[in-house]
């Protein structure tokens, strides 16, 4: 019976595998095998030339207008992404270190289940997070195991949280030897040190005495302990020396140096820095090294518990390998906010902070643009199949997991490997697609990805150098003026020429609205264009600033119909205000009301340029 | 539910006024999702003198079944709540993969209205659409070529149809060469061409060609029996026939979407049943549960507790809370031996043979109520699903506790026909704890808060630990955590306003604190003084003033108690109170107005234990 069932499920699994066509085996990592996987991935990262990264998150954008739209400048796009990255959560983090040899890609995919469990009971890493049911259902469609994630996902703390946690949870940390012995001691200091010395001396004598005179009464020995203030650290006696200020700490350490057998430890308490120094008495030199090792081990253990998954991020960061991402701005913002620190308030600060984390980031989406205008190719799969049809760039994916026989698979006709049935599920395949897409693109663009043996990347190929670190999805950021107006229908439009329009009585299509504007405001249809941003608000672009001023005057003059309009700086304020309402119109209303009360401080309009692209019709049906 | 509080300061505190308690509950019900819903109807069987319970446990999930307005279903998860669920082996996969979807009444109305407007002005819409498509540019060479080829193919097909009698299957041959892209079929008794495997752009071009060049062909897009979208070119005899066909298709599409909306109602059918049957609903400490039910299945929560209560009364006229019952009835309360009145505890005490441990068949000298359980045609007299904190089991426990409590109150189920009207229950019915922490009871009939607890003797338990909090005497301070030590505040304020000026200082979280003054005037005095000190920041008076020590040059902000209400009413939820307060304070309107509009943000919950009683 059992056997039969086993067979059944096996064939079902096989069918599913068949259904998915290609089958790559990705190493699945959860809390239970994380510590084994860590050294593996470390070796893989350091042996590879690139690291591809792909995230599975709980949501993207809450409302239509909160997506990154073609009208967004780098700054407003960052604001939107910042909001999303703080609210949503990463549930799955796939990492794939890979190298390219000829037409062969050697990839080592890992898939980590991540969950912000509060391991240390300090309310971190995250109190709560948002989920979008559409994201969860599409994850379910791909067979995502939510139980595995929540029960057994790897927790983490960001760098900023780690330092906060250190202060919060009082613990012991060894004193690193490089305490500068300050040469100038005041009289008070010397007296303090002498007092400490004599106290420690007494304590050591007492300890050794009690060892010798075993006949001592239990009561007497405990009384003696009380008097001497000695405690026990593990099996060794210890003494806690309270300090009144941070300044006294090095003094105590200095005083303790006299005693060879004593190991000083910092006692840090909640909220404040070092509160006391604990001296632990060891019986011999060997015992001392043993103790030091013990302390180091527990600290290491503690650190692992604290950092959790962030170890992987730190590995990627220290390896300095270029990071390949798809949809970079959002993913990198997520990584930054979950594993580094809360997102800074401006795009520039974010860029700087990210550069210190990952020196090179390569956006596949951006590379796609080098080939042609595929602004809609947001989906990795779609982009892949597009390339497949248009270009011939055969690439072999060689996927190897450590500890298993490398399965050499040609990606056109991948054969499902029959062993390890529970391991060959579909999680984390996106990262392989990202790296496949990247290599394909580079081979089409004739960008060399191979590095001579033994030589590590210090310099990226010039063409890659240009695209590296430009986080853009649709936005052409400021440092990216290399790509100009390529396709005929993309024009530069100054943000000065945009007007936001809302307060329409009922829903309209952009076409209807355009007709309405033509009719009631006497503007020629050639002079402007309209796009709906969401159901309540539209953006109007005027090719001519004069017409725009006339239009603004007319709308403000008419007033009665409830139609309202605002210029781009108001939109910028909406994005900065942190009021992410579902309807853009509402945000505009509130922002305008507020600015009226705030005595109209006119924000300086800097000259920023966005690209108005006719292909990017905002299609409400798509949303 | 996926969580209870969206931020630490949104937890319930002693110094929350009832309206603020409601705002906090409202926030919770709006933000979080319900993932499991337990319903356990109880029926009195006069023959066997026992209750028959039918526990049900529903997994629900706010899946987006019908295309929304670009608004997404979004809900918050509190990490600790998910861990709690995981501890009790909650099956998240089951919930997300197979959980029942639902649609609230207001969502359904909204969807139907949209459907109507879509199909009513469709006539004008489609014509203007075709005009627009006509000026859509055929810029790309590939597009033009494709259009021409399609024109040829379609006209060939049409010619083939017209001459079918004579030429037989002459066309079929050429069709096959088009590698299965086009297949001839019949649609509504008319010959049609099925278009397969074309990109959306190609389909758009085909549509354009069909509408422009062939008067008797119609391009339609239907959903087949197995719900696969199909694009067809249909041959019609005349233009009137074509219009007829188009309207048929439209009607069909409308019906389809109507069916879709109806089926998306899903789990709400259960709630509708509960509501329409007007049975007595029993819950345990169920105000939050009720708020969840309202926001998920009826509509957005009203802004005040009074409005909410009157809206609830329409749907559920009779609600009884076993927690209120146990705490306010002297006899039952004594029975609990002043222990905790949590559901499992009460169940253990009141229904020992059913609950774990106990053996006695009498509860405090009163005969025990027998409860039989029926699950899937199987009867158990001693049912224990074992799943602690499973909603269905919680509902069963609530019902059992209630039935035993009734027996202890001396209600005879054989003679009682209408339980809600029973006079012995009148003291308790429709009385709910607004929040357990404050023991404020709200009367669902009137919307009034009953300050004095119902029972007379158990004042020992309801007596507040703190002296009564006077809201109007209170100032709210927020700022960087290091500046808000209670001792510092007390010292500084006492230096300025005198030793007896401060009654108490309570911390909301590390970034905010309430300072309660002894007199109401002191509040405005304090705020005025603070303002004036900040205005003249650098004058020697303000530097040396004792208050400057805590105000720290404007980094610490202050406001009266009403501000707290505004801050709680905001739909935002920052983790730290100070951050939240900054956002709300800088957008004065954001806190007060708002909320009624978006129907999209339903966030649901979990352990709803409702029991329907006969």
Topology:
The complex is a heterodimer of chains A (623) and B (614).
Chain A: H1 2-20, E1 27-29, H2 34-47, E2 50-57, H3 74-87, E3 90-101, E4 104-107, E5 110-113, E6 128-132, H4 133-141, H5 146-152, H6 159-168, E7 172-174, H7 187-212, H8 218-228, E8 230-233, E9 236-242, H9 248-256, E10 262-268, E11 274-281, H10 285-307, H11 310-319, E12 323-325, H12 328-340, H13 347-357, E13 361-363, H14 364-371, H15 380-390, E14 396-399, E15 407-409, H16 430-444, H17 462-467, E16 490-494, E17 498-502, H18 510-521, E18 528-532, E19 537-542, H19 545-558, E20 564-567, H20 568-577, H21 584-597, E21 609-613
Parallel strand pairs in A: 1-5, 2-12, 4-14, 12-13
Antiparallel strand pairs in A: 2-3, 3-4, 3-5, 7-10, 8-9, 9-11, 10-11, 14-15, 16-21, 17-19, 17-20, 18-19
Chain B: H1 18-31, E1 36-39, E2 42-45, E3 50-53, E4 56-59, E5 74-78, H2 79-87, H3 92-98, H4 105-120, H5 122-135, H6 141-162, H7 164-167, H8 170-177, E6 182-187, E7 190-195, H9 200-213, E8 217-223, E9 229-235, H10 239-264, H11 268-277, E10 280-283, H12 287-297, H13 305-315, E11 319-321, H14 322-328, H15 330-335, H16 343-350, E12 362-363, E13 366-367, E14 370-375, E15 378-380, H17 391-409, E16 431-435, E17 440-443, E18 449-450, H18 459-462, E19 474-478, H19 486-497, E20 502-509, E21 512-517, H20 521-535, H21 540-544, H22 548-551, E22 557-560, H23 561-569, H24 577-586, H25 588-592, E23 608-613
Parallel strand pairs in B: 1-23, 3-14, 10-11
Antiparallel strand pairs in B: 1-4, 2-3, 6-7, 7-9, 8-9, 10-23, 12-13, 14-15, 16-17, 17-18, 19-21, 19-22, 20-21
């Amino acid at each position: 019976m059992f056997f039969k069932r086993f067979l059944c499920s096996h064939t079902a699994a096989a069918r599913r595998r068949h259904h998915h066509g290609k089958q790559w085996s990705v190493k699945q990592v959860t809390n239970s095998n994380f510590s084994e996987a860590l050294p593996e991935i470390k070796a893989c990262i350091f042996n590879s030339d690139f690291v591809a990264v792909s995230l599975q998150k709980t949501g993207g954008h809450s409302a239509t207008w909160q997506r990154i739209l073609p009208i967004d400048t780098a700054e407003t796009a960052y604001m939107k992404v910042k909001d999303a990255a703080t609210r949503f959560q990463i549930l799955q983090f796939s990492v794939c270190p890979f190298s390219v040899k000829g037409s062969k890609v050697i990839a080592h995919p890992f898939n980590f289940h991540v969950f912000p469990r509060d391991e240390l009971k300090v309310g971190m890493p995250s109190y709560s997070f948002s989920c979008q049911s559409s994201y969860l259902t599409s994850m379910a469609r791909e067979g995502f195991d939510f139980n595995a994630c929540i029960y057994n996902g790897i927790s983490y703390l960001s760098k900023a949280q780690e330092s906060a946690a250190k202060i919060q949870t009082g613990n012991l940390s060894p004193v690193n030897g490089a305490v500068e012995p300050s040469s100038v001691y005041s009289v008070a200091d010397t007296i303090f040190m002498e007092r400490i010395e004599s106290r420690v001396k007494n304590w050591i004598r007492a300890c050794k005495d009690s060892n010798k005179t075993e006949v001592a009464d239990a009561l007497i020995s405990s009384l003696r302990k009380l008097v001497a203030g000695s405690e026990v650290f593990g099996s060794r006696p210890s003494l806690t020396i309270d300090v009144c200020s941070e300044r006294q700490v090095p003094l105590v350490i200095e005083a303790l140096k006299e005693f060879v057998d004593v190991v000083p430890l910092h006692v840090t308490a909640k909220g404040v820095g070092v509160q006391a120094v604990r001296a632990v008495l060891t019986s011999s030199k060997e015992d001392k090294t043993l103790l030091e090792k013990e302390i180091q081990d527990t600290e290491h253990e503690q650190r692992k518990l604290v950092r959790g998954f962030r170890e992987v991020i730190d590995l990627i960061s220290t390896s300095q390998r270029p990071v390949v991402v798809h949809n970079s701005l959002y993913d990198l913002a997520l990584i930054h906010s979950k594993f580094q620190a809360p997102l800074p308030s401006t795009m520039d600060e974010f860029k700087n902070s990210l550069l210190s984390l990952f020196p090179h980031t390569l956006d596949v989406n951006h590379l796609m643009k080098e080939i042609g205008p595929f602004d809609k190719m947001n989906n990795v799969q779609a982009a892949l199949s597009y390339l497949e049809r248009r270009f011939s760039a055969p690439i072999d994916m060689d996927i190897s997991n450590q500890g298993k026989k490398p399965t050499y698979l040609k990606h056109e006709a991948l054969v499902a490997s029959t062993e390890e049935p529970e391991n060959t599920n579909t999680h984390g395949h996106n990262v392989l697609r990202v790296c496949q897409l990247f290599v394909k693109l580079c081979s089409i663009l004739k960008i060399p990805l191979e590095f001579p043996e033994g030589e590590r990347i210090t310099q990226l190929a010039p063409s890659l150098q240009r695209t590296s670190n430009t986080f853009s999805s649709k936005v052409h950021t400021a440092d990216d003026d290399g790509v100009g107006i390529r396709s005929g229908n993309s024009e530069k439009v100054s943000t000065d020429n945009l007007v936001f329009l809302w307060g329409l009585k009922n829903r309209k299509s952009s076409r209807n609205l355009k007709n309405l504007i033509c009719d009631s405001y006497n503007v020629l249809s050639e002079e402007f264009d309209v796009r709906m941003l969401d159901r309540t608000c539209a953006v109007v672009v005027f090719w001519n600033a004069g017409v725009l001023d006339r239009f603004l005057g007319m709308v403000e003059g008419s007033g009665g119909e409830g139609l309202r309009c605002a210029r781009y700086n108001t939109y910028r304020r909406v994005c900065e205000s942190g009021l992410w309402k579902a309807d853009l119109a509402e945000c505009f209303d509130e922002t305008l009301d507020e600015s009226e009360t705030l005595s109209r401080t006119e924000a300086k309009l800097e000259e920023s340029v966005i690209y108005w692209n006719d292909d990017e019709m905002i299609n409400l049906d798509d949303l | 539910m996926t969580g209870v509080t969206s931020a630490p300061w949104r937890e319930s505190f002693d110094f929350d006024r009832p309206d603020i308690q409601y705002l906090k509950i409202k926030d919770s019900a709006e933000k979080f999702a319900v993932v499991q819903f337990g319903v356990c109807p109880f029926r009195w069987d006069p023959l066997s003198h026992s209750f028959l319970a039918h526990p049900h446990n529903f997994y629900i999930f706010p899946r987006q079944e019908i295309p929304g307005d670009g608004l997404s279903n979004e809900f918050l998860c509190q990490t600790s709540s998910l861990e709690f669920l995981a501890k009790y082996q909650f099956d998240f996969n089951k919930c997300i993969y197979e959980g029942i979807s639902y649609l609230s009444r207001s969502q359904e109305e909204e969807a139907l209205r949209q459907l109507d407007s879509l199909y009513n002005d469709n006539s004008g819409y489609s014509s203007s659409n075709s005009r627009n498509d006509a000026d859509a540019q055929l810029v790309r060479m590939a597009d033009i070529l494709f259009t021409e080829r399609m024109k040829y193919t379609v006209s060939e097909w049409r010619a083939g149809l017209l001459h079918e009698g004579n030429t037989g299957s002459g066309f079929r041959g050429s069709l096959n060469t088009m590698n299965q892209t086009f297949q001839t079929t019949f649609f509504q008794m008319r010959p049609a061409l099925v278009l397969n495997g074309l990109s959306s752009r190609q389909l758009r071009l085909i549509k354009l060609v069909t509408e422009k060049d062939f008067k008797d062909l119609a391009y339609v897009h239907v959903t087949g029996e197995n719900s696969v979208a199909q694009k067809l070119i249909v041959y019609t005899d005349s233009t009137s026939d074509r219009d007829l066909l188009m309207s048929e298709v439209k009607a069909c599409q409308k019906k389809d979407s109507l069916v879709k909306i109806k089926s998306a109602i899903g789990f709400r059918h259960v709630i509708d049943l509960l509501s329409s049957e007007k049975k007595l609903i029993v819950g345990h400490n169920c105000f939050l549960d009720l708020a969840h039910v309202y926001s998920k299945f009826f509509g957005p929560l009203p802004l005040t507790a009074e409005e909410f209560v009157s809206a609830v009364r329409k749907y559920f006229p009779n609600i009884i809370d076993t927690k209120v019952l146990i705490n306010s009835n002297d006899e039952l309360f004594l029975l609990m031996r002043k222990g905790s009145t949590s559901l499992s505890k009460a169940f253990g005490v009141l229904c020992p043979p059913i609950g774990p441990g106990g053996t006695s068949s009498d509860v405090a000298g009163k005969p025990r109520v027998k409860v039989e359980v029926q699950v899937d045609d199987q009867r158990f007299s001693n049912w224990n699903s074992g799943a602690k904190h499973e909603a269905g089991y919680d509902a069963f426990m609530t019902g059992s506790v209630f039935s035993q409590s009734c027996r202890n109150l001396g209600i005879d189920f054989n003679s009682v026909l209408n339980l809600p009207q029973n006079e012995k229950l009148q003291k308790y019915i429709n009385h709910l704890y607004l929040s357990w922490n404050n023991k404020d009871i709200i009367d669902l009939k009137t919307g009034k808060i009953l300050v004095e607890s119902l029972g007379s003797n158990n004042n020992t338990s309801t007596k507040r630990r703190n002296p009564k909090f006077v809201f109007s005497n209170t100032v709210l301070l927020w700022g960087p955590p290091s500046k808000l030590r209670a001792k510092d505040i007390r010292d500084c304020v006492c230096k300025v306003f005198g030793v007896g000026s401060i009654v108490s200082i309570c911390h909301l979280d590390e970034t905010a604190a309430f300072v309660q003054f002894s007199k109401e005037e002191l509040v405005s005095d304090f705020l005025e003084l603070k303002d004036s000190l900040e205005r003249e920041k650098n004058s020697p008076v303000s530097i040396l003033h004792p208050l400057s020590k805590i105000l720290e040059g404007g980094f610490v902000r202050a406001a009266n108690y009403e501000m707290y209400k505004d801050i709680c009413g905001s739909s935002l939820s920052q983790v730290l109170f100070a951050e939240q307060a900054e956002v709300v304070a800088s957008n004065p309107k954001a806190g007060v107005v708002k909320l009624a509009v978006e129907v999209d943000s339903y966030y649901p919950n979990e352990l709803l234990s409702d029991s329907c009683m006969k």
